[in-house]
Amino acid sequence: MKIQAQWMRGGTSKCWVFEAEHLQEAGTSLDVLLPRLFGSPDPRQIDGVGGGTSTTSKAVILHRPVSDDVDVEYTFAQVGIEEAAVDWGSNCGNGSAVVGLYAIEQGWVLPTGDVTRIVTRNTNTNQIIVQRVPTPAGALAAVPDAQMPGVPFPGYAVGLGFQDPAGKTTGSLLPTGTATDTIAAGGTRWTVSMVDAGAPVVMVRAEELGLDPARYDSWRTRVELELDTLELIRRQAAVRMGLVATTAEAARAIPKLAIVGAPTQADPGCDANVMMLSMGKPHPALAITGSIALTLAARTSGTVLHSITGDTLGSTLRLRTPAGVIETWSEEQGRTLLVGVDRTARTIATTIIHLPEDTGSAVAASLAGATR
């Protein structure tokens, strides 16, 4: 079996990009096909195209739109690594950055003017994301030159504007109805904020974890010691937010968990320090859908993040992450609110992926061996 695909970097993630019709030709459920393509279950993903980490085991599936108000529809898939499973419950902001670029490169959207506007719809969340890609003189630049924190090499600039993002998953910006809640886990009561915008996110105070705001570089070591407790918090938040009925049913990808703390007075370059978890481990940068939730949380009185940023924020929010400072922005367009962030994207390879014809049997045999 041969499947056409494109390997792309979006923001600080890498993903395999497929056109829906190419996957449909395989005649196999995507819950079976994608893990086999990526080489799961296997922490190395040695017999597939996965990268063995949460930021490199992603797929973006593009669809031709069914309405004239959208240029491209896409579905995001977080492919399991140590399990042959696919999480369809959320979108990926970094992965979203490849959609507009792909559409221009493949001729789905024709460049118009110095900046081309591509209206995309994420089908996981029914979220409209307006993408802006520079196209000087009506074409992509021959050599991409935009830089961003967390990526050593340049790509094409992509602005992502999430249109009215509040409550797209749960129906409300504050799914529990309050700006802060208390969750008991690991013998401690934790003050948290649960916010749904871009993606559902539960926020934990850094000081309650014993993290020193003046030593952000030391956070990861301490956080890794608390991963089990943080996972308990995250799973309880999934229930409180109405995402699942029991903690055992909580998906790996949502809700996301963010640890937030105040910057030091000696560091005026950011509004808050943030460390986010991705698939149970510290994220090397920041989940962009999570950054949208953080942006609205900072502007919502009573949340743990608003207690840090206060009421003095302008149209931008600067978040320190392990990869550097990431800046989000908010923009009013009539009655529409765009909350966004600027990313870069680049095509790495265009290829044909080969896999055995009897994919279903191969996955079943792999799963049987993993449970022995």
From TrEMBL:
Gene Ontology MF term list: isomerase activity
Keywords: Isomerase
InterPro entries the UniProt entry points to: PrpF-like
UniProt key word Kinase: no
UniProt keyword Isomerase, yes or no: yes
Pfam families per record: PrpF (PF04303)
PANTHER family: ACONITATE ISOMERASE-RELATED, DUF453 DOMAIN PROTEIN (AFU_ORTHOLOGUE AFUA_6G00360)
Family according to the record: Belongs to the PrpF family.
Protein's name according to its UniProt entry: PrpF domain-containing protein
Source species of the chain: Arthrobacter sp. K5
